[in-house]
Amino acid sequence: MRKEYDFKEAKPAQDIPALAQLQAQTKPGKVRITMYVDVEVLQAFRERAEQEGKGYQTLMNEALAAAMRPEAAPVTEEKLRRILREEIHVA
C-alpha cells in the first residue's frame, strides 16, 4: 500500500452509478453522520446497550426520536410542581 493517495480527481459516490445504487440500498431513511458526545454519555449508552442486548447507536437513535415527541418526554420536577400547583389551586 502507498503511504499517501491522491484523491484530487475523485468523484463523489453519487456520481458513480454502481456506488450510488449501493448507497440507495442501505437502510432507507437512515443517514451516516459524525458527531461528538461526552465520554460519560457514550459510556452510559454502551453500558445500557449491553444490558438490553441492543446496539448503543440504536439506543441513541431511540433517545433522540423520543426527544422529538413532547408527549414522550419525562416528567421533570419543575413540570410536576407546576401541575400540582394547578390542581391544588382548582381544588
Provide structural commentary.
With about 90 residues, the protein is an all-alpha fold. The chain has helices spanning about 15-25, 40-50, 55-65, 75-90. It has 4 helices and no strands. It is elongated, with a radius of gyration of 23 Å.
Number of distinct helices:
4
**Could you tell me the radius of gyration in angstroms?**
23 Å
Mean pLDDT: 87
**Residue ranges: pLDDT <50 for 5 or more in a row?**
none
User: How far is the first residue's CA from the last residue's CA?
Assistant: 77 Å
Number of strands: 0
SSE order in H/E notation? HHHH
**Biggest sheet: strands, sense, closure?**
none
Strand content: under 5%
State the helicity in percent bands. Answer: 40-55%
Shape: elongated
Secondary-structure-derived class: mainly alpha
List the helices and strands and how they pair.
Layout: H1 17-25, H2 39-52, H3 56-67, H4 77-90
Notable characteristics:
91 residues; 54% helix
Summed up:
This protein is mostly helical and 91 residues long. The chain has helices at 17-25, 39-52, 56-67, 77-90.
